[in-house]
Write a structure and sequence with these properties.
2 domains; 8 helices
Length: 182
């Protein structure tokens, strides 16, 4: 992809085709990829918005504005950037969330702009004066998937007591004994 080459992007999506963005009438399109490869697409989305969306159409202008604020949030995260600032990150994150919410309100109950609970996590991280780039907001989901993969078993899978015991046994077998120091 030309964008990857021009911007020296290391973390690339394996497949970047229209079928990667297929959604349904009840579910929004979902982009599959790890956080690093999807994060690299934020500047790409902003450049596409600037190039293809018009300021004459209110909806397109709102989308451009949301893309700009999201791009600015990521720019504020880079310590090498002159825009690195907790205050700027907080302001741009609020503007992005408000713009996103306005798009959702405009389109009603359609799935394209449906806010997700992760928007709340995004705003919390941007509001705290820590370093949000060091947080991993998918940690809990990832741990749940790890436990689910670890605990696959045949038979009795629908009995919670057996599943919990199997999960505990598998976790104990794979983890070392903790060292307690006084």
């Amino acid at each position: 992809m030309k964008f990857y080459d021009e911007n020296n992007v290391e973390d690339k999506l394996k497949e970047f085709a229209m079928k990667s963005f297929q959604g349904t009438t009840t579910l929004p399109p979902k982009l599959k990829g790890n956080a690093a490869s999807v994060r690299a697409l934020v500047p790409f989305g902003f450049s596409l918005a600037k190039e293809y969306l018009s300021d004459d159409e209110p909806i397109e202008q709102a989308i451009k504005c949301a893309a700009k604020h999201l791009f600015n949030c990521y720019e504020c995260l880079r310590e090498s950037s002159s825009a690195f600032s907790h205050t700027a990150l907080y302001e741009h994150s609020k503007c992005f969330a408000l713009q996103y919410w306005a798009l959702y309100q405009t389109f009603g109950s359609k799935v394209s702009w449906r806010p997700r609970p992760k928007m709340h996590m995004f705003l919390e991280l941007c509001a705290s004066e820590t370093e949000p780039q060091k947080f991993w907001n998918y940690r809990d989901e990832d741990f749940g998937g790890t436990i689910a993969r670890q605990c696959r078993m045949n038979g009795r899978w629908n009995n919670l007591r057996f599943w919990a015991k199997h999960a505990h046994d598998m976790f104990r077998m794979k983890q070392g004994v903790p060292i307690i120091r006084s």
